[in-house]
Write a sequence for this structure.
């Protein structure tokens, strides 16, 4: 398959394209993926019959792998791959580009998850078939970002002009960095709510500033929760704190509880990339605000859309 | 006649106006100590343009654009002239290219370039102050993080 390097100009075509970083997509392209995902929810046609997806999981991730497999099966395609790197030739010392050059002969599209940052980009440069990044260390997880965007659009009816809060570990949370970047195209006002030690990295804030994004950094969720249309919660991990006392001090301030929802907008939607531990109380699950389980389900149509698009099949 | 601090070379490269403190770094990153021909190094020389400068003269060697790019990172004020028969044949452009390939090491230990046989690539996002972004792990680096390969 001939690989496409330049961005499509006239008719938007994703055929042969890699999905490595949300930074590689402009606003129109993001919207095209979301529209295609919407069509996929109604689609029952085996659009990818005869196509093979290779899932190369160099670190475990059950959900991402299963949702990619489900997406491929729903489109009538087949899946090969491994979920345990110890069985791959990398364990014997083979370089990643070599491994990819072998696998590309077996499949029409590759999904890779790797603990090293930048591994998916290396794989894409080595492969002549499209490569989709299923997460490369703390760097990018673009299909998660597309499904986050899809969930916001589906539950709010739009992306533009929303007030979106990001809560919890904003320093290490890659889903937060990528989503903030993607939402910067849509005139979204952002609230970064975190303890000082887990605030949004300066590099990301610098990028947002360059793009003219209006954002606020706050420590107290109660002060801003009433303004928000969307609240994107993340897990605060104890191991991120050098001092356990510091963790104890901040952890309760970032746990979402029903009592916190008094005075929020009626149509506030709460998202979370999951798994949660204790940062969203179970008593929120049956409120109309909880969107996180729907968000996880949206992973399938979004991944169906991306698989079909990079294989040049229109929904 | 004013005595030359560093004698002239017939053919080769003269790197002038190096920030004095960076002089030996330039020698190091260009691996000049390995050369067989004459290499003359001087630092803490008085300069009209800058307070103190360094100068490196390399006999019998023309720097490549890739080597010049390394100097642009370390010593942005430097001038690089190629000498033929005692006169300046060519002034090398010291502007940083948009992409730096195989010149600097990524500061992120979890970057694939520090763990596999992959050449580093960096996008130059701004020059003043210097900000580069790893093509692979997408981390930003500033002048303080730079480690030349």
């Amino acid at each position: 398959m001939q690989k496409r390097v330049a961005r499509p100009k006239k008719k938007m075509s994703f055929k042969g394209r890699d999905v490595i970083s949300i930074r590689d997509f402009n606003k129109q392209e993001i919207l095209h993926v979301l529209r295609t995902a919407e069509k996929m929810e109604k689609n029952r046609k085996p659009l990818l019959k005869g196509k093979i997806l290779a899932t190369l999981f160099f670190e475990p991730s059950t959900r991402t792998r299963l949702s990619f497999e489900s997406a491929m099966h729903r489109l009538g395609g087949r899946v090969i791959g491994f979920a345990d790197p110890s069985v791959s030739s990398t364990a014997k010392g083979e370089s990643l580009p070599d491994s990819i050059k072998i696998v590309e002969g077996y499949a029409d599209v590759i999904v890779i998850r790797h603990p090293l940052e930048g591994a998916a980009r290396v794989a894409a440069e080595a492969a002549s078939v499209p490569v989709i990044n299923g997460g490369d260390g703390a760097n990018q997880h673009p299909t998660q970002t597309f499904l986050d965007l899809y969930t916001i659009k589906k539950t709010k009816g739009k992306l533009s002009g929303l007030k979106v809060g990001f809560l919890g570990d904003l320093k290490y949370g890659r889903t937060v960095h990528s989503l903030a970047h993607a939402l910067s195209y849509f005139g979204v006002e952002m609230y970064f709510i975190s303890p000082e030690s887990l605030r949004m990295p300066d590099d990301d804030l610098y990028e947002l500033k360059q793009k003219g994004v209006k954002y606020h950094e706050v420590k107290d969720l109660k002060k801003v929760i009433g303004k928000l249309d969307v609240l994107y919660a993340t897990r605060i991990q104890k191991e991120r704190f050098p001092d356990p006392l510091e963790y104890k001090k901040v952890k309760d301030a970032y746990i979402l509880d029903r009592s916190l929802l008094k005075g929020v907008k009626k149509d506030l939607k709460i998202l979370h990339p999951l798994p949660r531990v204790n940062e969203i109380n179970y008593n929120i699950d049956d409120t109309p605000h909880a969107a996180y389980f729907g968000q996880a389900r949206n992973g399938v149509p979004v991944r169906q859309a991306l698989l079909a698009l990079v294989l040049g099949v229109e929904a | 006649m004013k005595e030359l601090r560093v004698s002239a070379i017939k053919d080769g490269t003269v790197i002038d106006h190096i920030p004095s403190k960076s002089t030996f770094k330039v020698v190091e990153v260009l691996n000049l100590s390995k050369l067989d021909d004459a290499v003359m190094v001087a630092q803490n020389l008085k300069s009209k343009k800058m307070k103190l400068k360094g100068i490196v003269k390399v006999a019998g060697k023309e720097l490549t654009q890739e080597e010049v790019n390394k100097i642009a990172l370390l010593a942005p004020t430097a001038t690089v002239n190629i000498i033929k028969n005692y006169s300046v044949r060519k002034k090398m452009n010291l502007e940083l290219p948009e992409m730096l390939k195989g010149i600097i090491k990524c500061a992120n230990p979890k970057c694939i370039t520090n763990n596999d046989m992959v050449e580093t690539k960096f996008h130059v996002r701004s020059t003043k102050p210097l900000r580069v972004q790893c093509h692979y792990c997408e981390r930003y680096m500033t002048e303080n993080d730079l480690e030349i390969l």
User: Anything to note?
Assistant: The radius of gyration of chain B is 17 Å. The longest helix of chain B spans residues 65-74.
